[in-house]
Amino acid sequence: MNILVTGGAGYIGSHTCIALLEAGHSVIIADNFYNSKPKNVEKIMEITNKTITFYEIDVTNAAAVERIFGNNQIDGVIHFAGLKAVGESTKKPLKYYYNNLVSTIVLTKACIKYGVNRFVFSSSATVYGDNSVPFFETMNLLQTTNPYGETKVMCERILSDVAIANPSLSIAILRYFNPIGAHESGLIGEVPNGIPNNLMPYITQVAKGKLEKLKIYGNDYPTIDGTGVRDYIHVLDLAEGHVVALENLTNGVHIYNLGSGKGTSVLELVKAFEHANDIEIPYEIVDRRPGDIAECYADVSKVERELGWAAKRNVYEMCRDAWWFERNYKE
Ligand code: NAD
Ligand code: UFG
Fold first, then answer.
1. Pairing status of strand 118-124 against strand 76-79
2. What is the mean pLDDT of the chain?
3. Which residue range is the domain that position 61 belongs to?
4. From the CA of 145, how far away is ligand 2's center (Å)?
5. Do 189 and 322 contact (CB within 8 A), yes or no?
6. CATH number of the domain within which 42 lies
7. How close are the terminal C-alpha atoms of the chain, in Å?
8. Nearest ligand 2 atom, CA 293
9. Is this model's pTM higher than 0.85 or not?
């Protein structure tokens, strides 16, 4: 298939492009490089030894998107392009609602106009809000704690309504848990802007000496050791999950959790990183971070049953590959 990957130069998108190319598909990337660099596209080609067509466009720009659909035979779309900084979304909500909703509307309109029936959407475990774990796909979605999360809830709703009105569409909504790690080449990985908000990039920057010590946000949660529990998934497993979802799409909307199904605490992840890489990570316990929940992990039985997909890589491999990328990375 010939797949249009929006946000394909970004963290998850770039790893998914590799998985798509390795599975024999062709890739067209559309990215405005707001949160990524053009050299990522070159690195994808270097890793796979395959060519990619790419367009530097904003996918909220309907005319630019339509030109891509008009000039290429597209069989499916994977829509990663989105803004994802939770904290920033509370300060600039309109920027988030505009970018994430309009891009989704523009792309689905183009799909309908050009008869492209396969659509895969990047959603997030954040849509579950503070439900009790494990999260499963049929749960009622509770209020999320930030505008970013609300954009994902709203896009899911838009896609579900569009699929009802357009029965030839096949849509997969993939709810990611916490992707970490990097491609084993060390050439591509997660490059946060400024001081990282997320745990793994913070740990790797402490390991590199760029940051002094990790701040652990609270050790008084009702969890195994008091620190927050998340479902970490290797970004390559996540990437492969997209290929499987795309190849097995049938009409209608299908929602899948993409996680490992296992919870890991902050302290457990720190220990795994230290063990995997033989590096000590200094840390201090500080107050809870507002908006954080105690535990977040997936029930993965639906995706295993319906798509035969399960995450294969363990936390040790995630820590090893995240550090390998950070070690090699130069600005
Ligand atoms: P990322 O920022 O690395 O990648 C997103 C890419 O989209 C970037 O290359 C950016 O330049 C591009 N982009 C953003 N808005 C655009 C626009 N209007 N037009 C064109 N390009 C645009 O983020 P990521 O971690 O790879 O996340 C990909 C998707 O997965 C996002 O939709 C995100 O919300 C979702 N998601 C991410 C996580 C996570 O922890 N990383 C978790 C759940 C869901
Ligand atoms: N944490 C720390 N110190 C840090 C950073 C994080 O202790 O410096 C803790 C958090 O309190 C939490 C855990 O590490 O317990 C994970 O935090 P992250 O910020 O890495 O991830 P979150 O689960 O908070 O959120 C991420 C994305 C969201 C997405 C969600 C679910 O940032 O966009 O995963 O996929 F919605």
1. parallel
2. 97
3. 2-180+232-259
4. 13
5. yes
6. 3.40.50.720
7. 34
8. 15
9. yes
